[in-house]
Each structure stands twice: as C-alpha cells, then as structure tokens.
Design brief:
Structural class: alpha/beta
Number of helices: 25
Distance between the termini: 60 Å
Number of strands: 14
Oligomer: single chain
Radius of gyration: 29 Å
Strand content: 5-15%
Helix content: 40-55%
Shape: elongated
Length: about 625
C-alpha cells in the first residue's frame, strides 16, 4: 500500500502516545510548553500566514485567558458571587469567562484595527498588546506585577491533572483536535475564501465573499486559540503574572509561525518546537559565553528570522514537506466519499431582457475625469464590447459597474435593482461575475481550487460545518461544477497544477472558468484575449458565442479589434472618459470620431479607415 501524508500523521501521533509514559519529566515539560505555544502559533498561521494580517498582540490574548480563570478560581469577589458552585467546576467557569472576555475584547479591538492595512495594522496590534500587558500589571484585583498564585489544578471528577505528564495529554489532545478541525476548515469552501484574503480581497469580494466578516472571524479565532493556551497555561503553572504576556513573547509567537511556515498548520507546530528548544538552549549557553545575563536569545531569533526569510521565505515546513512528497502518494480527497448535492442554478432571463444599466456614470480622481456621464445597457444573450485607446477609462468603468469603485454621480442597476454604493459581493449575489485586467488568482493554489472559489455563493455551509466535515456533500458538488467549467474552458489537464505556474493567457482562462463556476447572468471580461495565441483566441470566441446562446449577457473590454468586431453584437467606444460612439460593429467602425480616436488623423485621409480600425 502506498503511503500518504495522513499515514505519516497517524504514525507520528501513535509514536508520541507510546513514548509519552517513557519520556523524562523535563522532556515532558518541554513538550507541554511546545503544545501551549503551538496553539498560539496556529492562530497566527491563520491570521498572518493565510489571512495576511500581522499581529504583535497575541500574547495579550493569552493573558486574557490566563487571568480570567485565575480570577474566577482565586478571587474572594468571585467566590462570593459563585457561592455554592463546586470548586472542581470553577476552572471550567474560568474557561467560559476567558472565552467571553476574549471574544468581547477581540471584537472591539478588531472593529477598530482590522479596517487598517499594512504596517498600520501591525502598529495597532503592537499598541493594544502593550496596553493590555500594563492592564494586567496595574489592576490591584489581578495581583499587580506580583501575580496570582494558588490557582487550582484541573480535575475530571475525582481525577486531578496535577502532574505534567497527565496535563500534557490534555494539551496535546486539544492541540491535535484543533489542528484536525482547522485543516478541515482550510480544505473547504470557507477555507478558499480565507486564502483569498491575503492580497486578493477585491477578487474575493467579486465572487461573493464578505471579506470584512471573514477577517473578523479569523481575528476572533486566533484570539480564542491564544486564550485557550492561556487557560491551560494558568492551570499548568498554577500561577500567573504579566511577564509571559509582554511584547517580547508576542514577537516570539510570530517567530514561531514564520520560521515554521506561516501558511501551514504543521508549520506552526514545527516553529513552536524549534523556537522553544532553541530558547531553552540559548538561555543556558549565551550567559555563559557572554559573561552576563539578559534576553540575548532575541538577537539570535532576529538573525534566524533574517536567514529563514532569505533562504526559506515560506518557512521550514514547506521544505520538509516538499522533500517527503516525492515518496508519498497524494491522499484521497475526503469529498470523494460523499455523494454530491444538487447545486442551485439561476433562472436565465429571456433573450433581449435588460440585465445591466449604467446611467450617467461619472468618476473622478482628483482633477482627472476618468468617466464622464457614460450611459451603457447590456441585454441577456448579447455580447457588448467596450473599446477605446489606453487611458480612455474602460477599466475604471468596469470597476464602477461591478461595485469595486463607486461613481461620483450616476447609478448602476443590476437585474432591475439599483445598486447605489453596495459592495462587489452584492453585485455577485445578483449574478454578476468578472475577470480583471491584471490577473487576480491564488497563485500557490491549484487551478481547480481557484475555479472552486468562483462557486462560493452556490454553497451555504459555514465554518463549524467545515471544521466538522459536515459539508462534504456540498464540497463534492462544488468540485464537480469547477471541473465542468475547466472542461468548458479547455483547462481540464491543468486542474492540479499551481495556477501561478501557467502562462498568462491560460491564467486568464482560469479567471473565466472561475467566473462561470458562479452560474452568472452577467459576465464582465477585462481583456480576456490578452496573452492568448491565435488558435486560443478562436477557441475563446467560440466559447463566448456558446455562452451568448445560453442567454448569458457578456460585456467585454478588449484591445484586439479584429477579435471584438467579429464577435460583438454592439460596441461602445470611450475616449478620454466619454462615450463617443455606440452601436453595431459596422456602424462604429465607420464613425469618423472612432477612426480619428484610433488613427489620430482626419478620417478623410484614409480610404479604408474603417477596415484599419478593425484590423
């Protein structure tokens, strides 16, 4: 039987379970700390490595979980309020309190900081991480910088987890269960939406993902994982003070995620193990070598970070996994074991029915008028081309009518509904799908996964169902739909290739297949033929004609005039942000203003000017 990565995981877990009773106490303690730190690192893998949000404040969330349970189990005020509650239940009430407090604080902080981006977000997390550290140290009810001692051990009935060996079993069981749940989440419709947050938020919104909500969920999930680590830490140590929750520790957590592999769950565990073991060794060796005490290990961690970013920018886990992959057979996808459900399909409008209307669209950027009172209509079963010289305002107009930008004046109606200033996902919900002038794909993911993302709105199962693998029937249906669109676009042989490894022309076909997977009523194509060879252009034209015959409304921006004029039913020409002509291709080709816009001279000087425009 061929070995898969799942087999290796099972073997590793069994080996740890069999070796656990035989490990020396000091090694068991180290494993416990690795497990505690790995919980926080997992949150950072989700938040930073996959979601693209850098946080320097995770140690503060660990402190919230630790201090919540410490206060519940030791405070006289809590004892009065919880009089009559058995002492064995207090730690579990502490867990509940930690979850509630962390969710509340994280939600407030996330609402303030997540709208920021880049280094502003990182600086904001730095600020509230430091603030919470000083809150822990200065509130008298939390013991100040002296801390809180005599925290009770966890117990299950009469069985108390007082030894490191017993407590470690709880830590690692919880860690492995959470890794299983998070792996399931990332291997799902919701997981594809999460992966699109890093550098592809506009594309994610265009397929229907509520990126603001997804970012907040990621932020809350990472905070809860940190709080769980803090709760376990408090009952493992039986003592808490602010020191383990300061900025230096937050930076160490980030080191763990980045060094291990910030885009991989097992990278978080690997990073936690490496940094924990290295720190333990450096704290013994460096003071002896330097003749003085201090946090010298941070200097080594910084140098290690530079080395990893230079030699292994994606972390160490991808290198290890890549070395092993040649000896492993790919695991069978879990969705294949579930029968597919029937995906919902839109009722196509009647041919000729108005599905998109733009009225007097005006968009300015400072003193530049990109679109000046442009009108455009699009009907079902029609291909409408939008052409014009470079800088004419075509892409700006595309962004306005798809919700990415908002017009300064004028309005857009989709399927009879006025859109106002609604986000792109609202346009997608009404049946609009689009491609982009500059290709927007998940470059490290497979072509199949990219196209599955386009069908996001055709699924309905949430995060919890994904974590528990309760959406496998829906996932099977989404994958089958993606495979159908890949066949349609001539990409079936590339399904398992990384999308970023394809030539530019085929990447554009991936975008088209992704758009079609959403079962759209309106398809906006921004330069779809760019990068395609002559035969591929002909195949694309044939595909668009087939789509038109099904009732799909297609609006296309393209610089290849021969391609456009032989395909479109109507053509609208923009120049300097204004619509200068609109009508059937033959009429537009003969329009003097169009000829002058393209040839830069009076049309009377050219006998065959119309043919020159189309050539």
């Amino acid at each position: 039987m061929a070995v898969t990565s799942r087999h290796l995981t099972v073997v590793a877990v069994l080996a740890l379970a069999l070796a656990w009773p035989l490990l020396p106490p000091f090694t068991v303690t180290l494993f416990n700390y690795i497990g505690l730190y790995a919980l926080v690192a997992l949150g950072l893998v989700l938040l930073t490595g996959i979601g693209g949000m850098t946080s320097f404040g995770q140690a503060a969330f660990v402190g919230l979980g630790a201090y919540a349970t410490a206060w519940i189990t030791t405070s006289p005020l809590a004892a009065q309020a919880l009089a009559g509650v058995p002492a064995a239940l207090l730690p579990w009430l502490g867990l509940l309190a930690g979850v509630v407090v962390t969710l509340l604080v994280a939600w407030i902080l996330g609402a303030v900081t997540l709208p920021l981006s880049g280094h502003f977000l990182a600086l904001a997390t730095l600020a509230w991480g430091i603030s919470l550290y000083f809150v822990f140290g200065n509130l008298p009810g939390l013991g100040g910088f002296t801390g809180i001692s005599n925290i009770p051990a966890l117990s299950f009935g009469n069985w108390q987890l007082k030894s490191s060996r017993l407590f470690g079993i709880l830590i690692w069981v919880l860690l492995l269960l959470l890794m299983w749940a998070l792996h399931n989440l990332l291997d799902s419709r919701q997981g594809r939406a999460i992966r699109a947050l890093r550098g592809n938020r506009i594309m994610a919104e265009s397929v229907g993902v509520d990126t603001g909500q997804a970012r907040m969920r990621l932020f809350l999930t990472a905070a809860l994982l940190a709080a769980l680590s803090g709760w376990l830490y408090a009952h493992f140590q039986r003592f808490v003070n602010p020191t383990p929750f300061n900025l230096n520790i937050s930076i160490e957590y980030l080191f763990m995620a980045v060094v291990g592999g910030s885009g991989h769950l097992w990278g978080g565990v690997l990073g936690a193990a490496l940094i924990t073991l290295l720190k333990q060794q450096l704290q013994d060796v460096l003071p002896f070598l330097l003749g003085d005490s201090g946090n010298f290990e941070l200097v080594v961690f910084g140098l290690l970070m530079l080395l990893v970013m230079q030699r292994a920018p994606t972390g160490l886990w991808p290198l290890l996994a890549g070395a092993c992959r040649r000896f492993l057979r790919p695991a069978r996808p879990s969705w294949q074991d579930a029968s597919p459900v029937q995906l919902g399909a839109r009722i196509p409008p009647q041919a000729g029915q108005l599905v998109l209307q733009a009225q007097a669209i005006t968009k300015t950027f400072g003193g530049l008028v990109a679109n000046d009172a442009i009108d455009l209509t699009l009907n079902a079963g029609e291909i409408h081309a939008l052409i014009g010289p470079n800088g004419a305002g075509k892409s700006t107009f595309f962004n306005v009518i798809s919700g990415i930008d908002h017009a300064d004046s004028g309005g857009v109606s989709v399927a009879g509904q006025r859109m106002g200033r609604k986000p792109p996902r609202a346009f997608a919900q009404l049946g609009m799908a689009r491609t982009f002038q500059h290709v927007r794909i998940l470059r490290q993911r497979t072509v199949l996964e990219n196209v599955c993302l386009g069908a996001y709105l055709r699924g309905s199962r949430g995060w919890l169902a994904a974590m528990l693998r309760a959406e496998r029937h829906e996932e099977h249906a989404l994958v089958l739909e993606a495979q159908r669109q890949l066949e349609r676009c001539g990409l079936a042989d590339d399904a398992e290739r990384a999308a970023g490894a394809l030539p530019l022309g085929r990447q554009r076909l991936v975008e088209i297949a992704r758009a079609l997977a959403g079962d759209p009523l309106i398809l906006l194509l921004d330069e779809p033929a760019a990068g395609l060879r002559s035969l591929e252009k002909q195949e694309l034209a044939d595909l668009l004609r087939q789509l038109r015959a099904t009732g799909l409304a297609i609006l296309i921006v393209e610089h290849d005039m021969g391609f456009v004029m032989n395909l479109a039913d109507r053509v609208t020409v923009l120049e300097f942000g204004k619509a200068i002509a609109s009508g059937p291709p033959a009429q537009v080709q003969a329009d003097p203003r169009v000829i002058e816009a393209y040839l830069g001279a009076d049309h009377a000087d050219y006998a065959d000017a119309g043919e020159a425009v189309a050539a």
